[in-house]
Write a structure and sequence with these properties.
alpha+beta, about 190 residues, Heat Shock Protein 90, globular
Length: about 190
């Protein structure tokens, strides 16, 4: 047996490493836990942008997700018990991202679906649902599929062909990429 065949040959009774690697590539989970305070939301916006970029979402889709995560957090932080954590789980598929934001609340209640905030979330994320969980947890789940070049949800062959190339200032004034100093240097 050569090194090449040894690396690709499965051991009887053990999962095939090639299959395990393929499964990992199509479904990863990233979890961020932070104090339930608005001051930390820039961390989630940055994580959202980075993970969406990893999945080849367009710049417009990335910005939509960043805004949606920020809005979902704002809706939940008003219910959060001071001193507790906000948790955000990112489930990454090949062409879809599911983001679950949750807090522990003193009097947990479902986010109202007849509000402007919920309408904004639905427009930005595609699919939105509220959940009440064990131990007084309240969650908002956002699902966003990557768009194809024709504008329909699905697998995109070219991440830059379905919309704006970024010339509209997507990075210039959005906060995390532009003049705020998060990724660049400030003069003066």
């Amino acid at each position: 047996m050569t090194e090449d065949t040894a690396a690709t040959t499965a051991t009887p009774g053990q999962p095939d490493p090639g299959v395990a690697r393929a499964d990992r590539e199509t479904r990863d989970r990233v979890t961020v836990c932070m104090p339930a305070e608005g001051a930390y939301l820039s961390v989630l916006r940055t994580a959202t942008a980075g993970l969406a970029a990893r999945l080849d979402f367009t710049l417009d889709e990335i910005e939509d997700l960043r805004i949606a995560v920020d809005e979902a957090c704002a809706m939940l932080l008003v219910q959060a018990i001071p001193g507790t954590n906000l948790e955000c789980a990112f489930d990454l598929g090949t062409d879809e991202m599911t983001i679950t934001v949750s807090v522990v609340a003193a009097q947990p209640r479902m986010p109202a679906k007849d509000t402007f905030s919920w309408t904004v979330l639905s427009a930005l994320a595609g699919s939105v649902e509220g959940r009440l969980g064990p131990d007084d947890q309240v969650a908002i789940v956002l699902r966003k599929r990557r768009e194809t070049s024709s504008g329909a949800p699905g697998i995109s062959g070219d991440s830059g062909s379905s919309g704006d190339s970024g010339s509209s200032g997507d990075f210039g004034s959005s906060g995390d990429f532009g003049s705020s100093g998060d990724f660049g240097t400030r003069s003066g």
